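FORM 7B: Structural annotation worksheet

SECTION A. Query
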Amino acid sequence: MVELFKIGFISVTLLDVLDIAIVSFIVYKLYNMIRGTIAAQILLGLVILLLMSFLAQAADLRALSWLLELVRDTWVIAFIVVFQPELRRLLMALGKSPFFSMFKKSNIDSVADILADASFTMAQHQHGALMVLERKTGLANIIEKGTPIGAKVNKDLIRAIFFPRAALHDGAVIIRDNIIEAARCTLPLSAKTTYDGQSLGMRHRAGLGISEQADVISIIVSEETGGISVAEDGKLTRGLSKDSLRNYLKSKLGAPKEKGFKGLKGIFLSFGKNK
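SECTION B. Predicted structure
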């Protein structure tokens, strides 16, 4: 590899520059994901230790280098322990990347069918419901404040959650892929109290509000009218039938596949947004 320049005794090649750029990008995305948490401060401390180790070796500070080497072997273990939730999100982001979406078509169809059937049944009985499907933007903060479920999407389970006298019927259900992550979640309300001349209840404002702030799809079943609505990108679509809801979900969840470098890029973009 052709040498670009030298810093003291260190030779820098084009491959080194590319390596540093990739690592910097990953660290940047990781920091964005955990910004505002205790983990961010710990990550900053680890970066400072790495820089100190590098500078100590470059300046031939033997005592400092020896001291930093004592803790170097434990950094990997400490990183795994401290950042276990973030690493879990990274692995989930890998699975949700468009690069791997070709393997999940059946799951998309199944979830769309189940949610459409459950919504239609609840609408017939005028049981209010609010279901939020997570897409690229992670909803970890909202999930953590709800009641953990961790069960596969199931029509009977959804109906049981939103049964009017059930303990969990208030709030929203958060769905990630084909898993109901949590119920009784509190969502940010939209500032809009009317939409297209029609007043919005709290459930519709919550479904619309989360769609204004995150890349999600909200399914709202009205307790008053039994109507089915969908909120996405701050826009509300009312009066959906079972078939139209099913087709809508399949078209939105089954996003076009990206191949090659674009698909790999999607992994890091989704990773950075999962916070």
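SECTION C. Observations
The chain is about 55% helix and 20% strand. The CA atoms of residues 83 and 163 lie 38 Å apart.

SECTION D. Sign-off
Analyst initials: ____
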